[in-house]
Design goal:
two-stranded antiparallel sheet, 26% helix, 205 residues, alpha/beta, 7-stranded mixed beta sheet
Length: 205
């Protein structure tokens, strides 16, 4: 298998590179999409816990730490990928901020008991989870996380063109952004924060 390097683009770890093993089940988030993700989240990242679900390379969770997240929880089922994420955490000396948990995201979500503070949840599942027989399970996962996350939290799904956005919970409440074949789907949990607060400049007010 080949190795690839993914560069952290901003923050305290800017320029550091995450080394990852490339295999058919891995779907790294392109750098352009990563930049768009964090530009849109903006001030919703610092001082919040960031959950990188289906963490893969771990670069999203580590980028969140670099940009001021109070902590990152990286959930990854594959033992090799989880081991590589842990190596990056150790190398970057951010063990006080970032923790990798080797677990199946679907089972983890059933047990997740969040605090009352707003969080960020980022889901970038493998290709097979976005269509076919796994799609229903993935959509149930989104519903579960949406129901559990505290008010003011942001749930983001990275999907592909063709993903059935009309099957998401409360479809009109999602902000859909398109980047070539990639989609970023944002939902802010009720109360005082709404998707309308995403400004033209790309950051939450």
């Amino acid at each position: 298998m080949d190795k690839t390097e993914l560069r952290i683009v901003a923050g305290t770890l800017r320029g550091r590179k995450v080394l990852a093993t490339v295999h058919p089940g891995l779907r790294p988030t392109p750098q352009l999409v990563r930049q768009a993700l964090f530009s849109i989240l903006g001030d919703a990242v610092p001082d919040r816990v960031f959950y990188d679900l289906f963490a893969g390379t771990g670069v999203i969770g580590l980028e969140a730490v670099s940009r001021g997240a109070s902590g990152a929880r990286l959930i990854e089922r594959d033992a090799k990928q989880a081991g590589e994420i842990q190596k990056a955490i150790d190398q970057f000396r951010v063990r006080d901020k970032a923790q990798v948990l080797r677990a199946d995201v679907y089972r983890w979500a059933e047990r997740w008991a969040p605090t009352a503070e707003p969080v960020n949840l980022f889901l970038s599942p493998p290709f097979p989870d976005l269509s076919g027989p796994k799609l229903d399970e993935f959509l149930r996962l989104v519903i579960t996380l949406d129901a559990k996350m505290p008010p003011g939290s942001v749930l983001t799904v990275q999907a592909e063109l063709g993903f059935p956005t009309d099957r998401l919970p409360d479809p009109p409440a999602w902000d859909v952004r398109e980047y070539s074949r990639n989609l970023l789907l944002f939902r802010v949990k009720d109360t005082n924060t709404a998707l309308e607060s995403v400004q033209p400049g790309g950051e939450f007010a």
